[in-house]
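Chapter summary example.
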Amino acid sequence: MIYESLYCLTEEMNEYFRNKLKLNEDKVVLSGLVNQDGSIAIQGENKVIVTLVNIEKEITQKVNGKSFSSSMNNQSPPVQLNVFVLFSAYFSSGNYPEALRFLSFIIAYFQGKSVFTQSNTGGLDPKIEKLTFEIVDLNPDALSNMWSTLGSKYMPSVLYKMRMLSIDESVVREYRPAISKMTNENNPI
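The structure predicted for these 189 residues follows.
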């Protein structure tokens, strides 16, 4: 469910940028910032990188507005998660003003649409009822610690908390994106 929600968000934001800025290419990429060997994980430049940076368990005891008893059907309640998502403007050094421009558009996007539901987000997985986004304020020390932990140099960025992703063993499944076109050098399909 984490992948499905972040993939949907990435697609929604790419559509937003295509409409707002009349772009022909995707500018938003779901990716880590740094590979395990320390190399940069992103191919190319001038992109907005969507990165999962933390997961926390929601401490509320209600599921869908009702108290959940572990004795119900002898199963555990779904795990309610908050997911921290970093949006980093990865632009070349000569393109710093453009990085700030894209960062402003990201903030404006969430100011206009902070709640994702089935009715306002066509690509949202049917098993996800609602996602809400709120900006997270980090003091300079916390910001420095986060970037150090990520193993990357600071980039213009903003951190959001995505609230209440429900994880239930019965809904987690393997996800394989559709292949739009396959080719073989000798035999195009």
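To summarize the output: The longest strand covers residues 79-90.
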